[in-house]
Design goal:
This protein is of the alpha/beta class and 169 residues long. 25% of the residues lie in helices and 23% in strands. It is built from two helices and nine strands; from the N terminus they run ββαβββββββα. Bound molecules: flavin-adenine dinucleotide. Flavin-adenine dinucleotide binds next to helix 2.
Length: 169
Amino acid sequence: MPRPLDDGDELRAGQLIIATGVRDVLPDIDGVEFDQEALDTLAAVGIPLIDEQVSAVEVTEDAISGLRLADGRTVPVEAVGVSSGMRANLDGLEALGLETETNPQGTFLRADDTGHTNVPGVWGTGNVMDPDLQLSECISHGARVAVTINNGLIFGDAEAALAATRKSV
Ligand SMILES: Cc1cc2nc3c(=O)[nH]c(=O)nc-3n(C[C@H](O)[C@H](O)[C@H](O)COP(=O)(O)OP(=O)(O)OC[C@H]3O[C@@H](n4cnc5c(N)ncnc54)[C@H](O)[C@@H]3O)c2cc1C
């Protein structure tokens, strides 16, 4: 049974696979910031930009009907979209010194196609290292990481045995 290990317990292992996924990071909305390119793109496709703080979402008969703005105006809308980011669930692992990478989607564990991180013996798989992976891809990647670890353990043991044999002759 997986245990969160937040009870002070300690487990020791030669290999550690991090598969803790991601969590959404919702913007602290006080007004969303757009750079000039984003503004130009919105204008080019005919999307009006209203540069004002939203103070409330108005609901009429259980349906979104408008956005109330801080200046008192109400803009009629049928839907509201809020862009969220993501963050890899790496809390508590800071002491490992794992490298992360940040892109427009958020911050994630840096790991290669076979799950290697910058720390030997620590592996990453699934959304924690690639938020674009869907479920079947996460499963497939996890299996690949497991095979890579298994191969490393087998060949590591074999190399150690061979080295010991040569040392003794
Ligand atoms: C709303 C939504 C809809 C989706 N729909 C689809 C879909 O239709 N088809 C599809 O293929 N994919 C879909 N996905 C994506 C899919 O769910 C993910 O790609 C997949 O679950 C990622 O697997 P994972 O193992 O990397 O992470 P997760 O499934 O997120 O598992 C991570 C686990 O780690 C645990 N965890 C986190 N931190 C800690 C910690 N500190 N200690 C111990 N445990 C921890 C979490 O509780 C969780 O159980 C959807 C995702 C979302 C959010």
